[in-house]
Fold:
Amino acid sequence: MPAPFRLFAIVCASVVVSAFAAEEWKVPAEAAAVVNPVKITDAAVAAGKKSYVQFCQMCHGATGKGDGEAAAALTPQR
Ligand code: HEC
Structure:
């Protein structure tokens, strides 16, 4: 794609993205209607906790408040 058209495409894309960003985001109805395929058992909860501690807690924190150690390196800060 020639450079001027590429720039035009990037400008158009960023206008579209910022228009969406201005609206309050709501969960789409089809996503809200999704049923958890995992049966809630003690084993499933324990496995989820293990995954959370391994992959999520570093940012989201031990109680999900976003105060994990790695969150300090993210911007913007809240
Ligand atoms: C590198 C840091 C980091 C890691 C690791 C991380 N997250 Fe996040 N997560 C974020 C940030 C930053 C946001 C955006 C928060 C915001 O803008 O409000 C976010 C947002 C989310 C949200 C949306 C929350 C909301 O209220 O909209 C969910 C759900 C989420 N993360 C789940 C997870 C899960 C599950 C894992 C582990 C598999 C995980 N995250 C790992 C940094 C991280």
Notes: Residues 3-22 form the longest helix (20 residues). Residues 35 and 50 are 22 Å apart (CA to CA). The chain is about 55% helix and 0% strand. The two ends are 40 Å apart (CA to CA).
